[in-house]
Amino acid sequence: MLIQNYSSQQIVRYLDVRAGMRVLDACAAPGTKTQQIAMLMNNQGEIIANELHENRTKLIDELMERTGVSIVTSRSSDASVYDEHQKESYDRVLLDVPCSGLGDLSHKPEIRWHLKPEDIDQITAIQAKILEANAPYVKPGGILVYSTCTLNRKENENRIRAFLERHTEYELCEEHTFFPFVTKSDGFYCAKLIRTVETVQTK
């Protein structure tokens, strides 16, 4: 049995994956969303599950083996660094980025005592780098989904607006905030973006 928070489960559905696609889960460990993507693809196609820390890729591999998923390849690399070899390689890209975690306060109350304003600035800088690095990987007509487990607009709506100002080749299809008092689960945000033209700006 695989347990996943209700709001977290909803994020993958915004990818609109189908069997046979090539998908990148750029910040994948421990792999619960990766596994969900594979199930929605009927275990047909290819999924690259990227994780910064090599030791955490083992968590992905163990979960895929335990749940019978055979289309996932895990790897260790920095999602904030652009890789020219991956340009226009994926039908779908999921960016479940590092965040402040302010949507998880119900079971991580210590966050409110340790998080400082300067921490948010550092986090949003990382989020921006990840968006910039991974945007070119989406094929024209493909979908990029950005998600966080926070309700902080600086990390969510404002981050997406800043990205769209730089990247006119992307359009916002829809965005949604999952509020804990509505869903009775963790707070999450997601934005579904579609790439409409071939030219992508990179730093």
Task: Please give a structural write-up.
There is one protein chain. This protein has 203 residues and is of the alpha/beta class. The chain has one domain: 3-Layer(aba) Sandwich (Rossmann fold), CATH 3.40.50.150. The protein has seven helices and seven strands. The protein has helices at 6-13, 32-40, 54-67, 111-114, 117-134, 157-166, 180-183; strands at 22-25, 46-51, 72-76, 90-96, 138-148, 170-178, 188-195. The chain has a seven-stranded mixed beta sheet with strand order 3-2-1-4-5-7-6, with helices on both faces. Strand 1, helix 2 (32-40) and strand 2 form a beta-alpha-beta unit. The chain starts with 5 loop residues before the first helix and ends in an 8-residue tail after the last strand.
Kindly list the characteristics that best describe this protein.
203 residues; alpha/beta; Rossmann fold; seven-stranded mixed beta sheet; 7 helices; globular
In brief:
Helix content is 33%, strand content 25%. The protein is an alpha/beta fold and 203 residues long. It is globular.
Q: Secondary-structure element order, as H and E?
A: HEHEHEEHHEHEHE
Trace the largest sheet across and list its strands: 3-2-1-4-5-7-6
Average pLDDT across residues?
89
Task: Calculate Rg over CA atoms.
Answer: 16 Å
Distance between the termini: 43 Å
Contiguous uncertain segments of 5+ residues? none
CATH architecture term = 3-Layer(aba) Sandwich
Q: Give the amount of beta strand, in percent.
A: 15-25%
Number of helices: 7
Give the class-level CATH name: Alpha Beta
- The oligomeric state of the chains shown is single chain
